[in-house]
Amino acid sequence: MPFEALVAGCLAYVALMFGVAFAADRAAGRGKVRWLDHPVVYTLSLSVYCSAWTFYGAVGYASRSGLEFATIYLGPTIVFAGAWWGLRRLVRVARMHHVTSIADLISARFGKSNRLAGLVTLIVVVAATPYVALQLQSVSLSFEVFATDGLSDIRVAGMQGTALWVAAGLALFTIIFGTRNLAADERHHGVVTAIALEAVVKILAFLALGIFVVWGLADGPADMVDRIHRTATDPENRGWLLQPDRWTALILVSGAAVIALPRMFQVLVVEAADEDRLATAGWAFPAYLFAMSLFVLPIAVMGRDVLPADANPDLYVLTLPAQSGQNWLAFLVFLGGFSAATSMVVVCTIAVSTMISNHWLTPLWLTLRRRPQSGDPEDLRGFVLNARRLAILAMMAVSWTYYQASGGTAALASMGLVAFTGMAQVMPAMLGGLLWRGANRQGAYAGVGTGSLLWMLMIFLPSLGIDGLLPVPPEVDPLAFAILLSLAVNTLAFIALSIFGMPDPVERLQGLSFVSAVDPIRHSRVARGVDQAEPLLVMARRVWGAEDALRFFQTEAALQGKSGYLPDLTPGFLTRLERRLAGSIGSATAHAMIDSVAGGVKLTVSDLMQVADEAQRAKEETQRLENATAELARTARQLHEANDKLTALSVQKDAFLGQISHELRTPMTSVRAFSEILKNPTLTPEERSRFAGIIHDEAGRLTRLLDDLLDLSVLESGQARLSVMPVTLHDLIDRALTAASATRPERHFRVERDPLAEYVGIITDADRLLQVLINVISNARKYCDAEHPVLIIRVIRVLQGGAQIDIADNGSGIEPARQALIFEKFARLNDPARAGGAGLGLAICKEIMANLGGEITYLPGQGGAAFRVVLPRRPPVPSDAGWRHRA
Amino acid sequence: MPDILIIEDEPNIAHAVQFILSRDGWQVALHGDGLGGIEAIRGAKPRLVILDVMLPHRSGTEILAELRGDHDPSIAATPVLLLTARGQAHVPLADEVLAKPFANDDLRAVVRRMLV
């Protein structure tokens, strides 16, 4: 391809980038940021990670060291796989504090220290300069590949200026699109859109080349795998596969770099509209990296196979298609590499110049001025913009000088690693600052300081050829050793001084805000658009309750002439909302809450102090309320239980009254029917006599029922008067047997007793106990269904002078399902053979025994029906009995 | 085949009803328990059933429900006079309800109305 065509194509491409950046900036200026803010654009802009080092250098790396190149992709992949946990948090905190760079982030976290920011900026500049130089070198080298391809010496001589022209052009682009304005959020839509487009060119070029290599040069994947296998098993290529120490160190470093490198922090954090786009980037960026790394090994192996041994492996991607006469493919690859280099340089320069201007030049200027506060804001604004432009030019100039001085000899890969390892030194302070409230400024100084010193001595200076400053154990890999040692010392120093040092109040507040400010609003998505009132409504509902919040919002919407409950976010509405919220939760908190939802200005330290103050007060108030609520809940539960009990009692009472009604109406029916029949004069005397008998019986039954009811009522109320006296159980049992024999007198019962055991003297109400015994024995006479009925009575003296009387028959007993019911009122067993009881007998027995301080229970499994009456030696005092019963 | 089947567990009430209605010339049969009540109806095929609600083992309303669901339509349609001691005036499925205690003339009038 003619060199002129290359230059022309290249210029056309640059012009396109300028055009895209310009259009995007204009669109953003008109507020059309919807597509510019798309997560795909964001993800593509992240691919600035793949600089010329990865585009050209990865193949060179693979050619020299085999699979190890993959570590550079694995680190970021791991970091992005965990994006939901780590990166989201980072982006949210950074957005909250309107962080403009990684130096700004670290300084903001550790008490807004400008000296710390200056130190981080120093590391950034030292690490980034060779890296930018590397990009210039790669562009220059790639031009050379075309230029030396049968071109004259004059043009080769002209090549010397390529890097200078490239540097100058990039400086121009960066100044135009990187310092157009001093936006509060430091976002650059034009630049981001341009590098997103470049990302597409990069990936297309690399994939096209990979496909050409695998299916054009090799005979498909099988042949390719075969070639790779041959190379990997060549004894010359020891270490082509896994080397655990280097892999660990490199994955660690590349994972750190994907966050901490100035350009990465710029696109990942500063240019992010919000943290939600990480949901897409979390999988899409690793996918991009995977696509970029897919053909690295095939290209490297093919380059070794078909190109001369002295060919530069860093340029395989260009020389392979060029040697095969694929000029258009070569040009595409060239554009890809050009894109990689330029996008990296532009973003990196923007980031570094921001840091230089914000943390070096502006503080210096403010210090040098006699009355720092006197100038109007525009004054400072103009200075900052100019400082940034100056920093861009300086950065570019230094990088170009570095490139010229280093002679462009160092392998691309090693220069990239220098920058990676350098930026990794800020990671302990950054991670610690985000996760650990106890981290403080002394720790950050110590960590970043010692780590970067070790990096200087063991990695940076050796990369310039100044070697042997620190001894390295002979049997270990020097790079892995340097990385792990510097990071370990860094982390230990950071932790140690954080533990022993004391943070100042601003640091404390910032620490609190960084570590925990994420939590309260983590779940509320910040909607940027017309429906922002909704999250505000959600928030207000939490403070006021649904009804009040809805009423307020509805009123506000009505004021704006809108129906529904989502008013526009006019300043007036926001002020009123904030004022009303302030009445509920305090002004600082209200301010912070509205800001967090509606998106507002940065919180000042005093704001934060107030927030912390009010948060504390609110917490105490909440605690108090919670206690009161728990108390109320307890009371409510007790009321509820009492209510349940009353309801159950009421149901029981209704059932009881229904039962009484039935029990009364039944005998009355007979009485009424037969008394009417008796009025009839035609009855025979026998009939009259029989019917009168029936009336007499039923009237008696009515009387007994009423007696029983009254008795039960007295016993249940605990007001039964007991006339206690000493008695012998033997006598009482005798009397009971005699009295009960009136029940079904036709039945003859054999009674088994042990009279000697029955001579137990106790003090009790003899009549009441007798009533119980008669009832139990009568029941046995009524219900025992044995052919030769037997009654067994056993008396046992029990502890503390009481007694126990078991009365059992030899009938079929009571079926288990009914045993629990027999002591209930009207639980008369449904037996047609019953003898006129109302079904209150055992209920009365139970009440009597309770009054006497004992109990009566059914004894299951005794063959027939069996009851146990337990008596104390003397009944408790009456008031006690009454109380116990009511309880 | 009796005109009336009385299902009532209280023997005195059952006899009173039987006595009153027999003197009006009705053929009256007795059954004293909920258990077997439905079989008694099927067997006797009375023109009228006088049914007590509170029966041992099986309540009158249960018997009534089963009766109304009988596969023989002539059995299922048997008129039923329900005797209740709970004072209800109306019970589903029953043709007439008489609350205990009742006046003998009321009983006779209801029966006559149902049978004639």
TrEMBL record, chain A:
Chain segments annotated as transmembrane: 6-28, 40-63, 69-87, 116-134, 154-179, 191-218, 247-269, 281-301, 328-361, 382-403, 409-436, 443-466, 478-500
Cellular component GO terms, alphabetical: membrane
Enzyme class: transferase
Matches recorded under PANTHER family: SENSOR HISTIDINE KINASE RCSC, TWO-COMPONENT HISTIDINE KINASE
Similarity remark: Belongs to the sodium:solute symporter (SSF) (TC 2.A.21) family.
Keyword annotations: Coiled coil, Kinase, Membrane, Phosphoprotein, Transferase, Transmembrane, Transmembrane helix, Two-component regulatory system
Domain called Histidine kinase: residue spans: 659-875
GO MF annotation terms: phosphorelay sensor kinase activity; transmembrane transporter activity
Taxonomy, superkingdom: Bacteria
Nucleotide-binding listed as a keyword: no
CDD domains (UniProt xref): HATPase, HisKA, SLC5sbd
Topology term for the membrane: Multi-pass membrane protein
Entry EC no(s): 2.7.13.3
Protein name in UniProt: histidine kinase
Principal location class: membrane
Cellular localization per UniProt: Membrane
Coiled-coil annotated residue ranges, if any: 605-652
Record InterPro entries: HATPase_C_sf, HATPase_dom, His_kinase_dom, HisK_dim/P_dom, HisK_dim/P_sf, Na/Glc_symporter_sf, Na/solute_symporter, Sensor_HK_Regulatory
Keyword Kinase attributed: yes
Catalytic activity entry: ATP + protein L-histidine = ADP + protein N-phospho-L-histidine
Automatic annotation (TrEMBL), chain B:
Keyword rRNA-binding annotated: no
A biological-process GO annotation: phosphorelay signal transduction system
Transmembrane segments: none
PROSITE patterns, per the entry: RESPONSE_REGULATORY
Taxonomic superkingdom: Bacteria
Gene3D superfamilies: 3.40.50.2300
Ranges for domain Response regulatory: 3-115
Entry-linked InterPro entries: Bact_response_regulator (IPR050595), CheY-like_superfamily (IPR011006), Sig_transdc_resp-reg_receiver (IPR001789)
Coiled coil segments of this chain: none
Assigned keywords, A-Z: Phosphoprotein
Pfam families: Response_reg
4-aspartylphosphate modification, residue list: 52
Protein name: Response regulator transcription factor
